[in-house]
Each structure stands twice: as structure tokens, then as C-alpha cells.
Amino acid sequence: MTTFLITALLGLILSVPSTAKAQTSDSLMVAHLQKVGVTFSNDNQVTLLMNGQEKFDDLFKAIDQARKSIHMEYFNFRNDSINRLLISHLAPKVKEGVEVRLLFDGFGNISNNQPMRRSDLDSIRAKGIEIYEFNPVRFPFINDIWSRDHRKIVVIDGLVAYTGGMNVADYYINGTPQVGEWHDMHCRIQGAEVNTLQAIFLRMWNKVTKQNIHGPQYFRGLGHDDYFMGLKPDTCCTARHKKVGIINREPHTSNKIIRDFYTNAINLAKDSIKLINPYFTLNHGVKKALRNAVKRGVKVEIMLSIRSDIPLTPDCGFYNAHKLMKRGCTVWMYKPGFHHTKVIMVDGRFCTVGSANLNARSLSWDYEENAVIIDPCTTNELNRLFDSEKSQSFLLTPEKWKQWRTPWQRFRGWFAHLLAPLL
């Protein structure tokens, strides 16, 4: 009888899954981020804007319907046709009494091939638009080596927000002669996480301008956002009920938060990882996490572009991709143009869209911000994007590696990987 009871009890215990086994990667990710101060809300809708045309069409429609405030923080506003079109939408809103505030990074401006000059800024300010520069580039240029504001945030009326990988530039629509098509994506968020993005913007705005802009009117003060008409819909059944959190990297405050997010997202994966990132220089922790994921039986798929807008950094990325391919990762090399998209999808359960690259600058130096979306529907929208673009990519294999990369190019990649902490 005693033996029977012990056997029955052991069977009951073994039939109950452990907490660790029962928890899914998304719930573990939320728990980890909450421990480091990230808050999540459950009333959001997230609409993916899959290319530059979709992003700017949607953004301009939202701007045209603004009633109170328009806040924009970008790495750069390129001095081109899309910037001029943006200003043509913003200027009438100022006349209607809408507060319009623009913020850009000094290095981001001067490093693009069509920077805004003082005369351009004077012209914008003459229209009643406030525009300020974070960390202007000045001699002896030491500050400009370190932290730059690489975020991409728009908040309209405290109700509608945009974030992702795109700055204000027409090459997101037209491409460039150097790389051809320029692929990137953004998302529009409506719900409580708009408050978080607004708080990030206002903290940086007040830091740069020495103003003290604050108040409930900037934080969903108008209530319902249903007066914004004609925007691309969130077609998921979870619209208005999505769990979203914002991870915000600020130097000296939250240095490791995005780095740790990526490492933990990979470490927590149980089934699949799909990753697109333009600057794949990687730190040791991320490389180790990807190798370990493969060992656990996780299907790891990585997509990189064969073209890039900068030298040396892509060589380091190709080197890393080759090493990871040899360890069992599936690597797709995208051919038509430059994939500037920065997303990761884990287990079909959660994903991120934001400004952070997988290089040392984004993970260890710059101001960055990503939306973490705990939602299978949105995650699988990104999975479908990934899968559809395999048809325009080639699979990296040992044979293809030697055909595609010359001995000199392979050496250049090896040399570049030694410089990864600086790239």
C-alpha cells in the first residue's frame, strides 16, 4: 500500500510541468524587462508600416489631423524633397495653433549627404516651427565621437506615435544610386505606450532647449483618438489589446538595456528566431547567445544585405554571418538593395521594432529606443515579411561564401571584426 501511494504521488508530481517549462518565452521576456524598470500596458494597437511610402503617407495624414501638438525626434532630417514636404504639412498646423517641435542630432545632420544648413533652419523657424539640434558638431569634436541621439520618435496630440528605423529622407522611397532600393520599416502605436514615447521626447527636448515643457495635455490629454481618420488599420484581432513596452537606452542611465534585451530574447527562445539588422557587428554576448540557441535546437534565421551605405562595418557583419552559418544558423543574403530594417521575432510570440542596430554604437553609446510587442499576430506579420524576402535572397553556404567573397574581402572581414567595439 505504501509503495502504491509513493508511486502515485511521484506520478502526480512528474505530471505537473515545472514553472520554468510552463512559462513561454514572451512571459519570461516581460518578467525580465519589468525587473529592470520597463513598464508594459495592454491597451495598444500597433500598425506595421512596411516601407517608406507607407510610413510617410500615414504620418502626413496624421499630421494633417493634429489638434494640439506634434513632436518629432530624429537622428536626421535630410535636406531633400520629403523634408520639404514634411515642412509643408507642419507649417499650416502652426497657423491653426498646434505646437510643433522638432529635434535632430548634430552628427546625424552633418554626416548625411544633404544636411540642413543654418539658412534652412532659419526658414523652418520663420514658419513658427521650433527646431533644435542635440549636441551640435563643434571643435574639437570629442563629444561627437560618443553618444548621439539615434532615436526616431513622433508623437501627435499625445495620442498617436510612430517609431522604427527610418529618419526623414526621400531615399526610403526612391533608394540611392549607391545601394539601390532602401528597405526599412516603422510602426504606429496607439494606446498607453504613447505616453512612454512622449515622456522620452519631452525629457530630451527639455534637456536640449532648457525649456520645461510638461503637463497632462501631452499625455493622452485629449482622450479618444478616433478623430484620426484614414490611417492604415491594425487588422489583428488583438488591436487595442496588445501588450507593448518601450525599452529606452540613455547613456549613464540605462546603458545595457537594449543589449540585454537582445541577449535575453535569444537566450529565451524555444523554437525560432528571425532577425534582420543592417549593422551586424555583434558583441560577444549576442554571438554566444545565437550559437547556444542553435545548440538547443532553436531554428535561427538571419537576414543581411549584400549592400550597405557605409564601408567596413558590413565586412564585419559578413564575417560574423559566415561564422554563425558554420555553427548552424541559417543566413539569407538580401540582394535587391539595402535592408536597413531592425527587427527580431522570437517563437512567433514577441518582436521588436525600433532604432537600435546590433553594433557597438547602438548597444553601448547612443540614445536608442525600441518597442517590444508581445503579440503573436504582429510578430507573425513580421515573420511573413521575412519569409517573403527569402525569394530575393541567396542562402549562405560554405560554397557560396567562397564564390561570393574574394580572399581579399574575406581578409577585410576578419580585420573589421577586430574593430567591432568601435564600429
Automatic annotation (TrEMBL):
UniProt xrefs under SMART domains: PLDc
Lineage of source species: Bacteria, Pseudomonadati, Bacteroidota, Bacteroidia, Bacteroidales
Keyword Acyltransferase among record annotations: no
Region forming the signal peptide: 1-22
The keyword Signal is annotated on this UniProt entry: yes
Name assigned to this protein: Phospholipase D-like domain-containing protein
Alphabetized UniProt keyword annotations: Signal
Organism whose genome encodes this protein: Hallella faecis
Gene3D superfamilies assigned to the protein according to its UniProt record, in alphabetical order: Endonuclease Chain A
Pfam families: PLDc_2
Residues of the PLD phosphodiesterase domain: 145-172, 335-362
Family annotation (InterPro entries): PLD-like_dom, PLipase_D/transphosphatidylase
